[in-house]
Every structure is written in C-alpha cells, then in structure tokens.
Amino acid sequence: MQTNIAILGGGNIGGAIAEGFLYHDVIAPERITVTRRRVHLLDQLASKGVSVISDNPEAVRRSQVVIIAVRPRQMKLLLEEIRPVLSPGKHILVSVVTGFSLAETEAVTGDELPVIRAMPNTAVAVRESMTGLAANKAGAEKLDEIRKLFDLVGRTYVIEESLMSAATILNACGIAYFLRVIRAISQGGIQIGFHAKEAQMIASQVARGAAGLLLDSGIHPEEEIDKVTTPRGVTIAGLNEMEHNGLSSALIKGILASFNGIEKLK
pTM of the prediction? Predict the structure, then answer.
C-alpha cells in the first residue's frame, strides 16, 4: 500500500497498529509516522525505520491517513491541535478512541472531513485483529479504503455507530477475556502435570484451534462441543463442573460490566 500513515499516540494500541503494519512488510516503514510525547518510548519502532516524532501537526502534514489512538480525555485537545492542518481533500481521519463519537469529532473538525471510527484490538500487532468500522457521511466514500487497510492486519466488519460501544467490548476488551481464560486453563494444566511454559503453549494452541474451527465453518460452538463430548465422558464432566460454578454467567456478566463502564471514561 502506497498511502502515508500517521499514528497519533504511540501507546499500547497505537504501537500495536504500527507493528501490525510492519509485520512481514505489509506497509513500508518509511510510510509510517508515529507520535508520542516521550519519543524515546518508541525506540523499537524507530529501529525498524518508522519515523517517530512528538509533533502531531507535522505527522498529519506527512500523511493521508491519520489514525488517532489516544485516551478519550485527550481527544478534543488533540483534534484542536491538528485541525489547522487537516484537509478534507487530502486526509482521512481514523479514530480508535473509545467512546468519542463521530458527532463529537465533527464538532471540532467540521463535517466535510472523512472520519471513520475503528475499534481493533492489540492482536493487530500479529495481524489477527478483529476491527469494527463506522463512518460519518463524508467518510462513507472512504470506508472501503480503510477497511482494506485494516484487512491487512486481521478481519473487519462495518456497523452503525450505535454499535461501536459494543464493538469496543467484544473486540478490544475481548482479548483480555480470552487471555484470562487461557491463563486459567494453563494453571489447570500445571496442576495436572505440565510445566508452566508447556501448559501455556498447549492452552494457546488449543484456543487458536477452537477459534479456527468456528471461523472456517461458521457453525455454532455447541456443534463442535458435541463432537468431543461422549456419554459419561471426561469432557462433559468438566464442562458441567465449570457451568455449575458459573463459567458462562461470569463471562456474560463481565461483558455487561465493561459495557456499562464505557460512559465513565470521559
């Protein structure tokens, strides 16, 4: 891809996006500029040929796609800082900021600038992200371009903006939920005899395999579960014990708790 990209905010998610674009030379490093106040924290990206600076307007000037990856409380000030150098004819603004609406962005930038909200997750660093996308009216014509960009680092889907909070929970928070499940299974593996690294590797690969089965086939999880549960078998015994202790209920309640906390971020 020949587009120049600015990532304003080289923290966890911004840095992960940059790493994903660099993964197997998906995008040439000289086409990426990443900003952060403490530039030395971006030394790893700099060592790979990425331009790292603290000047947000300068990063915007160099680029056509501007990805904003800062905290919600920083968003308005950042938009006001870069507004003088944003051009509707040149730039596409992509916000990965939780809970900051398209209307709130347009209130600063105007409604002629193409603006797209994107919600990836940190697996973008290894090109395995799940990214939800929603656009303003001006951004609708640019949506395919941004979708192709994020398709380079995982899978994408387009939704109405009203679902962006839900996408934040399933996409971004979801990584942490599954990591915790993998961690718990790893701990169980240690208790039944595996060393810690072995247990983690096994649990991680099994999780990848389970996800692969569903992604490739599109079938319901219970259909695959039925294939490995036999009458009086050990699998159903374990599943029932987990359910008796609230596994599914705990996960659902956790998702709802995260969802209900989004509005408190600003």
Answer: 0.91
